[in-house]
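Weekly structure sync, notes
Attendees: PL (lead), two postdocs, one rotation student
Agenda item 3: pending single-chain targets
PL asked that the sequence for the first pending target be pasted directly into the notes so everyone works from the same version. It is reproduced below exactly as submitted, 166 residues in total.
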Amino acid sequence: MRRNPRLDIIKRALAASDLADPNLALNIYTALYGRPTEDKAPREQIDDAHRRRDFFGVIEAARAGQQTLEAQPWYPARHGDIVHIAYEGFGPDVPAHGETYIVEQPEVDGWFNLRTLAHSERDSIAEAGVFATSDDPDPLMEMWFEAGPHRLTIVRDGRVVHGGAK
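Predicted structure, written out during the meeting:
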């Protein structure tokens, strides 16, 4: 029977750690998989795996991103959902800004439109409404992957159903 290399990694992490360390689980996880990527968009995780030349990591990051979205209790999008993306600033030249969209579902074909409601970007930063789309079966997928769930706030029927934006 072939020995699992993860077992050796766990043993090395345990040998190098203090068992009373409150971060022991994080140390083992980091030894196995690298730093946790909670504040990274799935697209950033895919790019990280590309840089490591980790083909299975690319597939896993894409699969995990899609499954995380589809596992949300509010998924799929509904007509009238409001989605806000909060972007962090990058120094004095690029201040923090945001974009707000509304999900619309025309009665014609049942697919969704994502229309820009408001944005706080200056003209020099970027084109506002980059995630606006029409005739999309899953209008939230692209922004979930590109911006990341930690930057999204989704409001349904006046209630925040996903409060990822910090």
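Discussion points:
- The chain has a mean pLDDT of 79.
- Residues 1-36 form one domain.
Action: rotation student to compare against the earlier draft before next sync.
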